[in-house]
Amino acid sequence: xxxxxxxxxxxxxxxxxxxxxxxxxxxxxxxxxxxxxxxxxxxxxxxxxxxxxxxxxxxxxxxxxxxxxxxxxxxxxxxxxxxxxxxxxxxxxxxxxxxxxxxxxxxxxxxxxxxxxxxxxxxxxxxxxxxxxxxxxxxxxxxxxxxxxxxxxxxxxxxxxxxxxxxxxxxxxxxxxxxxxxxxxxxxxxxxxxxxxxxxxxxxxxxxxxxxxxxxxxxxxxxxxxxxxxxxxxxxxxxxxxxxxx
Amino acid sequence: xxxxxxxxxxxxxxxxxxxxxxxxxxxxxxxxxxxxxxxxxxxxxxxxxxxxxxxxxxxxxxxxxxxxxxxxxxxxxxxxxxxxxxxxxxxxxxxxxxxxxxxxxxxxxxxxxxxxxxxxxxxxxxxxxxxxxxxxxxxxxxxxxxxxxxxxxxxxxxxxxxxxxxxxxxxxxxxxxxxxxxxxxxxxxxxxxxxxxxxxxxxxxxxxxxxxxxxxxxxxxxxxxxxxxxxxxxxxxx
Lengths: 246, 238
Fold this sequence. Notes:
The structure holds two protein chains of two kinds. Chain A is of the alpha/beta class.
């Protein structure tokens, strides 16, 4: 299924506090698909909070996070049906098989040709041969791939992935990124959070976060050029230094 | 109510592969009823309490732990982001665990007849109906209380706080009317009190149809409030 219209994500002075801790501090962002947008930064920089505000799982303290112009908590069922979400946690049912997990999310999203969609998602994550294995019997990498299949079985226009490659070996990470590019090439806006800074060079655009604030938002080549760095890790460090090393 | 059927189906499929929970649902109640039949020489008078409290207690544990697992595993976030409505998710839970409560009610019914030699003065269908109303209340309570727990151990810790006082005060050991007045009124706002009342009518024909109507009405109100509260507070689930 091709994207019906260009998905957009807009953050306007997005702020979220947890008690005295400010997880997001006035984040502004506008992205329009199709593209792969990396949300990068060290642990605790606000990546997951940003995603949860965008999806309506957390209410912002101030500002707004919108999908296609609608604030996260106000997204109706048809709007939510355009979104696929892979949380940071395992987020699959360990006592179900791989196929049952993917089929459950396909039915939640009202996928029309469910059997075909499930098989396509399983093939994409290369788990067709383990489809009838219970998740609790799988390796960590296979569990992450099951989770990814659940997120994209309904071919979403906006795919939001929170640390999808954490704990995976390089070969598997490369395979996952190939899957993200495949979704992007079919019209989707893919939002990927990661704390592997080297990984974001695979993105079309990168949002660097530190302590809830935006350090930079640009394409990887432009960030490297502006900082004079050879890789994205060095670029991030140079941005930190330019920001006063706070 | 979008999402109710997939959620209910998922719960039942998960249970199918969970032999320990199935054993707890089917074998343990029957075993406990048998044990009680060995202890009580004349079990008929205590049967209403046993039959009412068992399903309430087990449904609470299964729902609280099951819902907590959804939260901590991250699957609930995922389901909340999907097009499923909040009320659909709760209805899915009601249907899924409702099937389990029905199975449990039938197991208790058979065990009570076989081991306790219990007769149901006002009929078996009424027994199943009252049992399911009790289970519905426990289910809503399980969802609501699980939102205040971070671990399965904490969900179990609510039992002495939220369930045990109901069992002690709800007519199990002493008729509610015989309690000191400062305990009588709290007992009247506890679901188990009305569950035991209704069961006493169903099993022993204590009271009249008017008493049953009051007990069932109260129980239905508790069930409705618990389920509505669950549908509201599920928005707080993170």
